[in-house]
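question for whoever is on the cluster today: can someone run the full assembly for these? two chains, 638 residues total. i dont have access anymore since they changed the login thing
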Amino acid sequence: MPRLTAGVDLGGTKIQTVLLRDQQVVGSARMLTPQTGADAVIAAIVDSVKASIAAAGARTAGLAAIGVGSPGTIDAEAGSVGHSPNVPGFEGDPVLVGPAISRALGGVEVKLDNDVRVAVLGEWKRGAGRPYHDLLGVFVGTGVGGGLVLGGELREGMGAAGEIGHTIVKDGGRRCGCGRRGCVEAYAGRARIEATARSWDRRGRPTKLFDVMRKRGRDRVTSGAIAEALQRRDEVTIQLVDDAVWALGLALANAQNLLDLEAIIVGGGLGDRLGQPFVQRVERRASRYLHVPERPPRFLPTELGDLSGAVGAAVLAGG
Amino acid sequence: MPRLTAGVDLGGTKIQTVLLRDQQVVGSARMLTPQTGADAVIAAIVDSVKASIAAAGARTAGLAAIGVGSPGTIDAEAGSVGHSPNVPGFEGDPVLVGPAISRALGGVEVKLDNDVRVAVLGEWKRGAGRPYHDLLGVFVGTGVGGGLVLGGELREGMGAAGEIGHTIVKDGGRRCGCGRRGCVEAYAGRARIEATARSWDRRGRPTKLFDVMRKRGRDRVTSGAIAEALQRRDEVTIQLVDDAVWALGLALANAQNLLDLEAIIVGGGLGDRLGQPFVQRVERRASRYLHVPERPPRFLPTELGDLSGAVGAAVLAGG
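^ ran it for u. tokens below:
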């Protein structure tokens, strides 16, 4: 009987789960992340694993292992997650997620790792990064995360490698969520794009971005709203996306100059939503700054889209 | 009988050679690089190897292997060097340096690699980098070169990894020798520091730097001249060194944010000359930009100083 492996991508707003059999996604499930605490989140993860098994027409008894990708501080050995400000119940001291999920599912093995690292693992092993052994994955979403594969190994460093989002592209530039100024994330992360648009709006530089947001019934400027405002040729949005392209282009060129990579994969909520044209613009911008422009890396969109993390989590668990 | 290994650091102005026995430098020799062509340079390398053997009171017959670090494009297999604009006779098509040296020294094995890579190898295996398996070596001289050790391996990438000197720290900033603007090298490389001082001087911002240079009987602003002008509190030199500290601090912090290294070693002609106080200033500057400031890399001066390259070349040859 072929081995079944589940992968869970735990986020602040949603839980995405896939079920792999023979390296193929045979079932998946997505649900909103409960906002009522750690126990509810753990129960939701268990439900989502069961739902993805049901979706595949398989049985829980056949499940070999579960991988979980989570934001925050991960202790892979203990199976705990802590200091994850966006996941309700996980903001503080470590919670033993792994053992709890295992108990609820008959003692199945559970592996944990950082959400961005598992997303890079997913794209590397099952997505756009398959042909390469030296690559950088950049996930442009609410923030900007990244992870490196170097010499065919996912790089750990002392635990914090791959923070391309906090490359400073302009000393003294736009304020970032991390408290410093001029990070890539301050220009390309969805949350800072929204904050900058609000600030410009207040200072008399109007934008259609918030009309689009309201029309979509949202109270946040989603990636979809940014894409729509861009299509409507809203000047502020055009400027903000230009700035994001510039910041990503510069930071990725600097990473390339230092690391001489084979490929750079651009994904994440905003990256996936703006898609290939956005990735091409980033590539063109980066090429201006490359020290060896005649041998650039390939710039690629993700292949797995918003499943990169869940698939990577399943790969982590041996799927 | 213990094995003898020679290491040669070939530069545009000097050839530095060391002889290693039991991993210790037991002899060394230094000479000016002939300016009359490839044959003269090869003969000088052979002489310098013989001189270092003589200095150690050893005999040529005991020599097991020679390593050579050179600027330019290296073909390690063929033993050739080409496209090295600063070494007379090596500016154009590849010259078979390795076989020529080997013939002149009784068929001894000769290994070649890039000058910056062997310098990193020297500091990693025999110098300040010994305790680490993840480090960046930065050599601040006429230009700014760098090399990476990641996971206990000297990183090659597609052949051009480690170009920290061409990290862009200010888009549209100072012109660099590479043709782009705002590279680290445009702020911290000796040649661009000199060019900037000349340009400011012409535009009415006087400096003692050129008086110091002439007093020293030189027609170039050497690292020694920069150090002396700094000591004399020359305002332009203070500003230029501040700028170099800023550029290095920002670029090294960005490298750290991406790679999560254990150590950063700062050397090169200017880095070694300005020494520990300069390295500490770079460290303090970098710490402002670190994403995980509570776990910074160690910032270290070189241990081997201007022998990093020659010792590393000997290590390359098995010494």
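summary bc i know u wont read the tokens: The first helix of chain A runs from residue 38 to 55. Chain A touches chain B through 41 residues (CB under 8 Å).
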